[in-house]
Amino acid sequence: MTDGVRGDGRKADELRPIKIEVGVLERADGSAYLEVGGNKILAGVYGPRESYIRRLLEPNTGVIRCRYNMAPFSVGDRKRPGPDRRSSEISKITADALRPALMLENYPRSMVDISIEIIEAEGGTRCAGITAASVALADAGIPMKDIVVGCAAGKVDGEIVLDLSEDEDKEGEADLPVAIMPRTGEITLLQSDGNLTEEEFAKALDLAIEGCMQVSEVQKEALKAKYTADMG
Ligand code: UDP
Question: For an engineered disulfide with 134, which of 95, 148, 151, 168 has Cβ 3.0 to 4.6 Å away?
């Protein structure tokens, strides 16, 4: 950072340019396409439908399954296709981040499948994936208490900054991905990679929540744009 300006020209508390489009897939029940910085992410939702997997079937509630997948061409060095430790972890924490918003008890014996495809990655894909998946769930008409939203903050060159790019993630001292339910402020994801003092942690968490609130507005605008267009 030089004179308060980051490598890509942003201020410390500035998000990368972001756009969200709702209902981009014909065959999914709900879908969303999201770009933030150099990330390109597609989320598709199927369900709720009757669970055909016996071991997943819960008599009193619905269940969600989530798959986060990086395309081989999404990163600088070709990624080996298929699941790995990182994508399994992100699939799990994404499901955990989204579940509190869903009223799955209304759908006993059912399941909801969420697919997140990272077409291009440039830092912050887990948060962006959660943001896109939540919009896709809303597009699928699944009743939700709130639209979960994700955004990270972190520390780069000793400064607390919002929404780390891939370069900042690599060179930086810490990364703090956060997801919240914006209406109540309930935190549904909080991870921390790197070292932060207590004071820095508090500052980064506040900044990430502030970023989430901004991204939440973009989610709402995208949903409004889709549904006002459908009605017109
Ligand atoms: N990345 C990569 N190859 C991989 C995994 C990640 O190039 O196999 C890049 C990608 O741009 C990603 C960034 O490193 O967004 C940071 O990855 P991290 O594991 O911190 O997760 P993210 O920030 O995407 O949630």
Answer: 148
- Plot region of 119 (φ>0 → left; ψ -120 to 50 → alpha; else → beta): alpha
Give 119-161 pLDDT, tens digit per residue.
999 999 999 999 999 999 999 999 999 999 999 999 999 999 9
More confident residue, 107 or 3: 107
- Place 221 in a pLDDT band, splitting at 50, 70 and 90: very high
Ligand 1 touching residue 119 (CB < 6 A):
no
Q: Would the pLDDT of 231 be above 80?
A: no
Closest atom of ligand 1 to CA, residue 127: 25
And the tokens for 63? 């269940």
H/E segment holding residue 19: strand 18-22
DSSP 207: H
Question: Per DSSP, what are the bridge partners of residue 100?
Answer: none
Distance CA 38, CA 125 (A): 10
Closest CA to ligand 1's atom 3: 75
